[in-house]
Task: inverse folding
C-alpha cells in the first residue's frame, strides 16, 4: 500500500482532476470542489495538493496555452496518470468491499 | 489602478516564489482576482489577492538557493568553526579574558546608560491617557524676556472646559501650605488643590478608597507616606483631620482615599489632594480674575482630537489676560503633551513635574559611545596581533580549499561567540555593579528594567550587531587576506601594523586620555567648588522658615537658653535660599537689588565679613543699611558712607560694607545686595 497512499483531500483532488479531464488546473479544481462538496479551499492549498500528487506520480502536468483572462499567463493543466487511475480504482474497490461487509442492522 | 492587483503583492510573489512555478501561481490568483472584481468590490479583491500571495508562501514554493545543496557539509563546517573558536578562546586565557572583560565593561556602561535614558524617556507613560493629556504652558513676556511658565491664569481651565467641546477632562493644580492636625499630631504639609477630574485624568495607583472621592469637597486624598505619618497603625479612611492654612482659615476634611506608592517613572505625584472648591472657600474673600495664576492647568482631549485644534480658542483668553495683567503679558498658550513635560522641564519656570536637564543624559550617552569605541578598537588591535599565532591554521584552511569568504565567516563567528559572552558579562556588570552604584549617587532609584520588551530586544540585538561588526569586521578581513604561500614560506611581515591599526591605536589612546583627564578635571572642579569660599560661612547654620514675628520671638527665647546654640538671628529672606529682588531708587535711577531685612546678629550668625563701617547694633539703626562691595561698585560710590538711596519712599543711609558673597552657585553673577 505504501507509495500509493492517498490522504482525504488528495483523493478528492485526484478525483476532481479525473472528472475535469483535460481542463484541470488550479482554479478549475478549486471551483469544482466548491461546487460539488461545498468545501471552499484556498488556491494555495489546491496547488500544494496537486504538487504532492505530481510528486507521487499520480498526475502529470503540461503548460497550456496563454489566455487573456489571466493576464496572458499560461495554465498548468493536470491529467491522471495510469498510477493515479490505479490508485483511485484500488481505493474505490477497498471502500466498496468494506462497505458491502457492513451487516444489515437497524440504526437507532 | 482599481482593476490592477496590488503591486506590492506581485513584487512579494516574485521575490520569494520559485521561478519554475511562478507563472501558474500568478496566473491562478490573477484569474481569481479578475473574477472577484466582477462580483465584489475592487478593494476586497485587492485584499484577497494579497492574502493569496501570502498564502503561497510555503516551503515548497520558495526559491531555493542552488548553493545550499551542500547544506550538511556546511553545518559540519560551522560546527568546526565553533569548535576552533572555543579552543582558541580557551587556549590563550589571558588574552581572551582581557578581550571579553574589556568589551563587557563597555557593554555594561552602555546597558546602564540605556536603562537610565530609557527610564527618563518613559516618564509618565503609566498614565493610560498619556498622549491626550496636555499642560497649558503660559508663554510670558517678562521684562522683554520670553519665559515659559507652568503657571497659567486660574480662570483658563474652567473657560476651556466650558467652551471647547472636545475637552474631555480639565484640572488645575494649585499648591498650598498648611498645618495638618490629626488628634495631637501636627505637621506642616504641602497640599495640592485640584479639580475632581484630576483623579480621572491621571492613573496614580490607589491603595484605599474610591477614585471619585474628591467629588465631595470634604474629602481629601493623601499619599502613602502622609498616611504612614498620621495613621501608622490604623485604617485612615474616613478619619477626620483639620488643616490650618497660612491665612488662618481652618478647614476640616475626611480622608477619602490613600494613594499607593507611585511608580518610579512618575515625574510628579500628589502629596495631599484637596478639592479646588475647598480652595475657593479658604480664600472666600478674594475675587479672582484673569491676573490670578494657578500652578498648572491640565486638560485631556477626547479621542481623535489633537492639540492644534485648541489654538483657535486661545486669542480671546490671551486678550482677557493681557487686559487684566499688563505686567506679565501672555504671548501664547502652548499645550504641551504630558510625556514631553519631564523632558522639557528645564525650559519651564516653576514646572510641576520633575525631570532634570537633558545635558546629563547626552553626556552619559557620549561617554558610553566613547567607551564602546575604546573597547572595540582595543579588541581589534588585540585580535589582529593574536591572529598571527594562528597563521598556520589559516594557511592550511586556504590550502585545503577554504575561500576567503570561509575564513571571514569563521572569524566573524568566533567574534560573535566572544561578543555574546561579553554581552552576558556586561549585563551582569551593569546589574550587579553599575546600576547599584549609579542609584547610590542619584536621588531616585532606577530599577534594572526596560520600558518594554520591544525596546529591550531592539537594544540588545543592536548592541550585539554593533559590537560584533565594530570589533570583528576588520580583523576578519585583515586575517583572511594572508596568502598561504607567504605564510608557509614565512615571508609575510605580519608584525607590521597597517595604517588602520595605527589610526585605531592612536584613537584609542586619545579617547582614553581624554576620558581620564576629563573625569579628573570634572571631579577636581566639583571638589574645588565645594571648598571654595562663598564669602560667608553656611556651615553649622540651621534655617527654620517661620511665618510671624511672634513665632520668631517665641522660638528665639527658647533657643537662647540652649548652650549648644551660639547665635540666633531672624531675617526676612535668607541668603542662599531666597532671592529678594527689589527695586531701589538712587538719584532718580532705578537699581535692581536683593534686600534682606535682618536683625542685629544676622551678620555674625551667617559669618559675613565686614570690609568697612559697622553692622547694626542698636534699634535706632532702622533707617540704616549695610551693602555689599558689588553695590558700592555699581553705584560708583567713592565713599559709600556719605551716600543714601530711597526705597519705598524712605531714605536709607549706608553704615557698613561687606565682602561679596555667592548666593547659590558660581554661575549666577553676584548681585548688589542690601541688608
Result:
Amino acid at each position: 500500500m505504501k507509495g500509493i497512499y492517498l490522504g482525504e483531500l488528495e483523493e478528492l483532488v485526484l478525483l476532481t482532476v479525473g472528472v475535469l479531464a483535460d481542463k484541470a488546473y488550479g482554479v478549475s479544481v478549486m471551483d469544482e470542489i466548491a461546487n460539488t462538496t461545498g468545501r471552499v479551499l484556498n488556491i494555495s492549498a489546491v496547488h500544494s495538493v496537486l504538487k504532492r500528487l505530481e510528486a507521487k506520480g499520480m498526475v502529470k502536468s503540461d503548460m497550456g496555452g496563454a489566455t487573456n483572462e489571466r493576464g496572458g499567463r499560461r495554465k498548468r493543466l493536470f491529467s491522471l496518470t495510469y498510477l493515479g487511475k490505479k490508485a483511485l480504482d484500488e481505493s474505490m474497490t477497498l471502500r466498496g468491499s468494506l462497505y458491502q461487509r457492513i451487516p444489515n442492522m437497524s440504526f437507532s | 489602478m482599481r482593476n490592477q492587483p496590488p503591486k506590492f503583492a506581485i513584487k512579494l510573489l516574485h521575490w520569494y516564489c520559485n521561478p519554475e512555478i511562478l507563472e501558474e501561481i500568478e496566473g491562478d490568483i490573477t484569474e481569481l482576482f479578475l473574477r472577484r472584481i466582477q462580483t465584489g468590490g475592487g478593494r476586497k479583491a485587492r485584499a484577497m489577492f494579497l492574502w493569496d500571495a501570502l498564502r503561497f508562501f510555503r516551503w515548497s514554493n520558495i526559491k531555493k538557493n542552488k548553493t545550499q545543496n551542500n547544506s550538511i557539509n556546511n553545518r559540519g563546517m560551522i560546527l568546526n568553526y565553533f569548535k576552533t573558536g572555543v579552543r582558541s578562546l580557551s587556549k590563550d586565557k589571558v588574552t581572551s579574558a582581557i578581550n571579553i572583560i574589556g568589551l563587557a565593561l563597555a557593554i555594561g556602561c552602555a546597558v546602564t546608560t540605556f536603562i537610565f535614558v530609557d527610564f527618563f524617556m518613559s516618564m509618565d507613560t503609566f498614565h493610560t491617557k498619556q498622549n491626550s493629556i496636555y499642560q497649558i504652558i503660559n508663554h510670558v513676556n517678562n521684562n522683554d524676556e520670553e519665559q515659559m511658565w507652568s503657571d497659567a491664569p486660574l480662570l483658563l481651565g474652567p473657560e476651556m472646559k466650558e467652551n471647547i467641546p472636545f475637552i474631555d477632562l480639565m484640572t488645575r493644580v494649585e499648591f498650598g501650605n498648611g498645618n495638618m492636625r490629626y488628634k495631637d499630631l501636627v505637621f506642616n504639609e504641602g497640599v495640592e488643590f485640584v479639580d475632581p477630574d484630576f483623579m480621572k485624568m491621571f492613573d496614580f495607583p490607589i491603595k484605599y478608597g474610591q477614585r471619585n472621592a474628591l467629588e465631595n469637597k470634604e474629602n481629601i486624598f493623601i499619599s502613602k507616606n502622609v498616611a504612614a505619618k498620621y495613621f501608622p497603625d490604623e485604617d485612615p479612611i474616613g478619619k477626620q483631620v483639620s488643616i490650618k492654612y497660612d491665612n488662618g482659615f481652618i478647614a476640616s476634611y475626611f480622608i477619602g482615599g490613600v494613594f499607593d506608592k507611585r511608580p518610579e517613572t512618575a515625574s510628579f505625584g500628589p502629596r495631599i489632594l484637596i478639592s479646588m472648591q475647598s480652595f475657593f472657600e479658604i480664600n472666600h474673600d478674594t475675587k479672582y480674575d484673569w491676573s490670578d495664576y494657578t500652578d498648572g492647568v491640565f486638560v485631556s482631549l477626547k479621542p481623535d482630537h489633537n492639540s492644534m485644534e485648541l489654538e483657535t480658542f486661545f486669542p480671546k483668553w490671551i486678550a482677557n489676560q493681557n487686559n487684566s495683567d499688563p505686567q506679565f503679558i501672555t504671548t501664547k498658550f502652548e499645550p504641551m503633551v504630558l510625556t514631553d513635560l519631564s523632558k522639557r522641564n528645564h525650559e519651564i519656570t516653576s514646572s510641576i513635574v520633575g525631570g532634570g536637564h537633558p545635558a546629563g543624559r547626552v553626556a552619559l550617552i557620549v561617554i558610553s559611545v566613547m567607551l564602546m569605541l575604546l573597547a572595540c578598537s582595543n579588541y581589534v588591535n588585540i585580535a589582529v596581533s593574536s591572529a598571527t599565532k594562528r597563521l598556520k591554521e589559516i594557511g592550511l584552511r586556504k590550502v585545503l580549499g577554504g575561500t576567503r569568504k570561509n575564513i571571514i565567516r569563521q572569524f566573524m563567528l568566533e567574534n560573535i561567540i566572544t561578543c555574546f559572552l561579553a554581552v552576558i558579562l556586561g549585563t551582569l556588570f551593569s546589574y550587579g555593579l553599575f546600576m547599584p552604584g549609579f542609584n547610590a549617587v542619584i536621588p531616585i532609584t532606577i530599577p534594572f528594567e526596560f520600558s518594554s520588551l520591544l525596546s529591550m530586544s531592539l537594544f540588545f540585538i543592536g548592541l550585539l550587531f554593533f559590537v560584533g561588526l565594530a570589533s570583528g569586521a576588520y580583523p576578519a578581513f585583515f586575517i583572511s587576506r594572508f596568502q598561504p604561500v607567504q605564510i608557509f614560506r614565512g615571508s609575510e611581515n605580519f608584525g607590521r601594523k597597517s595604517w588602520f591599526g595605527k589610526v585605531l591605536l592612536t584613537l584609542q589612546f586619545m579617547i582614553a586620555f581624554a576620558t581620564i583627564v576629563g573625569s579628573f578635571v570634572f571631579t577636581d572642579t566639583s571638589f574645588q567648588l565645594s571648598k571654595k569660599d562663598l564669602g560667608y560661612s553656611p556651615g553649622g547654620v540651621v534655617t527654620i522658615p517661620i511665618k510671624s514675628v511672634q513665632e520668631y520671638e517665641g522660638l528665639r527665647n527658647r533657643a537662647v537658653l540652649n548652650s549648644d546654640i551660639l547665635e540666633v538671628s531672624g531675617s526676612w529672606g535668607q541668603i542662599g535660599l531666597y532671592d529678594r529682588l527689589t527695586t531701589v531708587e538712587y538719584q532718580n535711577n532705578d537699581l535692581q537689588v536683593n534686600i534682606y531685612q535682618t536683625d542685629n546678629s544676622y551678620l555674625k550668625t551667617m559669618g559675613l565679613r565686614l570690609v568697612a563701617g559697622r553692622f547694626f547694633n542698636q534699634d535706632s539703626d532702622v533707617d540704616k543699611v549695610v551693602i555689599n562691595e558689588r553695590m558700592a561698585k555699581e553705584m560708583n560710590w567713592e565713599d559709600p558712607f556719605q551716600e543714601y538711596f530711597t526705597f519705598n519712599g524712605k531714605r536709607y543711609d549706608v553704615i557698613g560694607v561687606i565682602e561679596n558673597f555667592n548666593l547659590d552657585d558660581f554661575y549666577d553673577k553676584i548681585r548688589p545686595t542690601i541688608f
